[in-house]
Design goal:
six-stranded antiparallel beta barrel; alpha+beta; Tumour Suppressor Smad4; Rossmann fold; four-stranded parallel beta sheet
Length: 315
């Protein structure tokens, strides 16, 4: 039977540093939050199982110690648990990974002990989630996320980072991967429907963003709000490599908004598939992790996840 509060730990997060970081900061974290039962993941997909069982065993607060992948597994476990088991429960990230874009969006300190001190007095806010139906081999699958779901450059870069690891940290590793993909990749033709409007075309990247940043700090959707009942849809039209690199550079500072060939709007539902005749497959990036591929449907689920959210702080 778990305690009232648990901590989901991905030992591989932060390029393998998360387990060491937890041992170093455990005393400070528990001084702020109280005793925590540690749930250690052993493989991809283990986190949702652990969180689901913990909630059904009575856990009321679930802290995700790691990066965005660990946070995603905590969210997935929460939303697949029985409704009665998750009633009254709340989630919170303790950033200890490489990207930590969800924690960045909350303006949490990226040091887990400092984040714990901030979260100790934080109120609960219900945030929106993205429900993503996608192709997983021969079957259709569903996964929820809170950061982003993307294809094209977003997915191809994530796949490369997955192979390389993150020896340069999250931000630089994703940037290096994006530049490598740009050097050899090309835009693809997609069938794209945005809230029923046909936006089909050739794009380098298309993604739905619920938080402002992705890829370890790329400010792709400035002003995104986790609880406004909308997500931000970003697409980048086909362009030459030099123009694409210029757009990528501006993405990191949020200065891409209004650029020619960059489409950013709010939406509630997106349907995305490769255009007829476009060779597949096309991978999918969910919260920085490579999971399945197209065709996919992304729908906003308002107020789906209760999260400890500190008062908004200046960047």
């Amino acid at each position: 039977m778990p305690r009232a509060d648990v901590l989901l730990l991905n030992p591989a997060a932060g390029n393998g540093r998360a387990a060491r970081r937890w041992e170093a900061c455990r005393a400070a974290v528990e001084a702020a939050l109280g005793p925590l039962e540690v749930l250690r993941t052993e493989r991809r997909g283990h986190g949702p199982e652990l969180v689901g069982r913990a909630l059904e065993g009575g856990a009321r607060r679930v802290f995700a110690f790691g990066g965005d992948g660990t946070w995603n597994e905590a969210v997935a476990g929460f939303l697949t648990a029985r409704e009665d088991a998750r009633t009254g429960a709340v989630l919170a990230p303790l950033p200890a990974g490489s990207g930590c874009d969800f924690a960045r969006h909350l303006r949490l300190p990226l040091d887990p002990a400092a984040a714990a001190a901030v979260l100790a007095g934080a109120p609960t806010v219900r945030i929106d989630a993205l429900r993503v139906e996608y192709q997983d081999g021969a079957r259709r699958a569903v996964r929820h996320c809170t950061n982003m779901a993307g294809v094209g450059l977003a997915a191809d870069s994530a796949a490369l980072v997955e192979r390389w690891g993150k020896p340069l940290g999250g931000t630089l590793s994703y940037l290096a991967a994006a530049l490598a993909v740009i050097a050899v990749g090309a835009p693809r033709a997609y069938r794209l429907s945005v809230d029923g409007e046909d936006r089909s075309g050739r794009y380098h990247v298309v993604f739905a963003a619920n938080t402002e940043s992705t890829g370890g700090g790329m400010l792709a959707a400035p002003g995104a709000d986790l609880a406004d009942g909308r997500f931000e849809l970003l697409s980048v039209d086909a362009a030459g490599r030099a123009a694409l690199v210029a757009r990528l550079v501006r993405l990191y500072s949020g200065r891409h908004v209004g650029m020619s060939g960059v489409f950013l709007r709010q939406a509630r539902r997106v349907e995305l598939a490769l255009a007829d005749g476009e060779p597949g497959p096309a991978g999918l990036n969910l919260d920085g992790e490579c999971l399945g591929g197209l065709p996919a449907v992304v729908e906003l689920v308002p107020g789906a996840v209760p999260v400890l959210v500190p008062a908004r702080r200046e960047s």
